[in-house]
Amino acid sequence: MKRAFMWLVSMAVAATTVAAPGQAAAAYDAHVWSNSDAFKVACLGVNDTYPQQLYSLTVTQLGKLGFGPVSGALGSGFTRAAVLGNVLSDWAVYVHSHGDNYWAASGAPNIDSGFLQDPGSGKCNSSKDIVRASSIKAATQGSFYNIVIMSTCMLGSNSSTMPAAFQIEKTKKATDYEFYLGYVYHTWDSSSLRFEKAFWSYVNGGTPGSRTLAAAFAYASGIGGYEAVSSSEPFQANWWGDPYYSGTPLRPVAR
Amino acid sequence: MTKMQASISSRNVKSAAGLGIVALMCLAVSAGHIAAARRPSDPGSAAESVTRVEVALDASADAALITREGETRDALGFPVGVKRAGHHVVDGFENAEYDEVTELDSAGNVESVTQFDSKGRLLGAVRVDAAPVTGLRVAQDGAVKSAQRSVVAAGLAVGTPTSTEADQATGGWTVHWTRTQDGVRVRGDETRVQVWPDGRIQSVARSEHDLAAAPASRIGSATARQIAGANLDRWFAGRNSGYTIQKVDLEWVGPNAAFDPARINGVEAPYRLAWVTEVKPSGDAANDVWLMSLFVDAGDGTVIGGDFVE
What we know:
The complex is a heterodimer of chains A (255) and B (310). By secondary structure, chain A is α/β, with parallel strands linked by helices. Chain A has one domain: Rossmann fold (3-Layer(aba) Sandwich), CATH 3.40.50.
């Protein structure tokens, strides 16, 4: 399979080489992954609808920005293999699940952040479901990403290693078209949904390409009204990347 | 691998995925192994109807609004744009309607956004330019004083802040005043100020939902605990899971779709008085959910919503 894949890439690179600039409309793959089976009757005795709401919102809004095809899965199609098998071709990646800054295989204090894949229909999550940042980094092969959103707990904290899995430095002064968004602490789903709605409404609310993702972050963060888990775990989102990037799919450019 | 090398590498690979997409698709069929994950199915359709509709305001007809925005901008120390644009916004994302004035720089970039409700009261103002990197960092006390001055200057009445926390995203501070009605907290509602590290204001927001009439008679917290427990017992029955009810607090809450997909994208109902039951799962369920809450209506005892920390 890997041989076939590499051969296909080689063929395609050759095709690119002979293609004139702007010759064909480029695809900007995006994947939206949302763990839902862990939050259904089989595990909780009740269906939690937030994974569906966040998934639907993101699929639509990434499409409005111009990413496409927007693929992925709500539920059992969200597997480690599917994430790692598709991430190389992605320009935008969104994950909604449980996330944390786990100890790395080398042990504390080293961190290897991760999120949980969907456990599959009728199943519940366990530690075997962790998709590690280190695995993602290997699968990306140093590739470039426009937008990465980790709609999970903890992966927007300063100790998260998830941005680096997508080659995104933890700086707010990046000069390439990249943007990483995550939450700092444990987060109520209602707060994530409110924040992400505000984020998308701002960036897709103006003339296409006229607003920046950093401004959308500031807007969403600024409207307030977010329920905190506790006084020691307030609602906080965080971002890294290019403060001037509009979110429109773009190839990397040294500026 | 350097970043530049990484970028070049990715450009080639992803250009291949884009410009050579037809070839890839044909070859993928013959190889039979490169099937991508399935396309999103129907759940996306509900969100497609969510829109934010802006209708331009006539500056002369809405002079009072423009004036009010200017006063707010100056009170908060926001930059003065070279032009302003006003809109009436029907915001399907937030289920809200408001008037919005944006300050724009010479290139047409948004510098700040200020919103007012239908009565002309300030909903929020946020500057969206980049936070300064000056090395300055005001202490928490200084940030709170700055926040208090700003909300008063912006015409909002506040007392002593409920809480203040350091903000990892800006390096500054966020100051909160929780909203209460008749001594009962309104869940999520607040006045909130973000303070940059140098003490300047990034945003002021007033989040305030409509409240339904309080029920004529209330169930007690013990009854609410029993109702929540009965639901949880049923939900966790036969599973290797348990739970602990950590607290039961009376709050005003928004009925929501947490347990009811039929209510997704529904019209937002006024907040109701409810007993918020915070539940810590244990056993297998703890692998899936870190914390959950059930909103038990304080009048009729029905579960009108909830929340999850996944």
